[in-house]
Design goal:
Helices cover 16% and strands 43% of the residues. The chain is of the alpha+beta class and 128 residues long. The model has no long low-confidence stretch (mean pLDDT 81).
């Protein structure tokens, strides 16, 4: 009986430990300030290396013009990606390798048209 309880507890606890060990970047916001489309991601660890980022929008791929990482005081990182200025966003995601692991991060954009004025969209889908 004790063995089966311990086994059950381990089966419940191990996936939580494994998922906590795998950091995942999160989409924070997309904006069209200036002459580019900027996407900001957060990463729960210090970024040691990054690959070129590719933004897929409406089935077309756009390579990042700029990829920057900034360490935060709490040990996390803010990643800023700049792409060609786009005004229509549909089925969007970013592919990037961070610290040797490749990620595909959805931006939550579904058929959104942004005019030429400066506009920002956060991870809740709200336009600011």
């Amino acid at each position: 009986m004790k063995k089966s309880i311990i086994t059950l507890l381990l089966l419940i606890i191990i996936p939580f430990i494994a998922s906590a060990a795998d950091p995942t970047p999160k989409f924070k916001r997309l904006n069209n300030f200036g002459n580019s489309t900027t996407i900001v991601l957060s990463y729960p660890e210090t970024v040691k290396s990054m690959s070129k980022a590719v933004f897929t929008n409406d089935g077309k791929n756009y390579e990042a013009k700029s990829v920057k990482s900034q360490g935060e005081k709490d040990g996390t990182s803010k990643i800023t990606l700049k792409f060609k200025r786009l005004t229509y966003f549909n089925s969007c995601y970013v592919k990037i390798a961070i610290n040797g692991k490749e990620y595909m991060i959805p931006t939550g954009s579904a058929g959104i048209k942004i005019d030429q004025s400066s506009t920002s969209r956060n991870n809740n889908g709200k336009t600011e």
